[in-house]
Write a structure and sequence with these properties.
The chain is an all-alpha fold. It has one domain (about 5-85): 434 Repressor (Amino-terminal Domain) (Orthogonal Bundle). About 65% of the residues lie in helices and about 0% in strands. It has four helices and no strands. The longest helix has about 30 residues, at about 5-35. The N and C termini lie far apart (about 40 Å).
Length: about 90
Amino acid sequence: MNNDEKGKKEKFASEAQAPSTNTSAHGMREQRLALSISQEQFGRKLGVSFQQIKKYESGKNRVRAARLFMICKALNVSLSSMFEHDPTK
């Protein structure tokens, strides 16, 4: 496999993971807004910048499992609730 083929394979693998990331990001944003917490307040609570929260919510940056666990604790929700949103609606 040449480098070009390898790059395409990696691209497809990352695209396949994107929907779950976007779904959890959407759930995070919905819950944060429901609690009337700003991105800045939420970032301080998690020990990250508001810019990082913005990137998580937009799907620009992926949320790692350990961070997602912290987010769920901060929002007082279950991990599974972050994936309940139906992106087709």
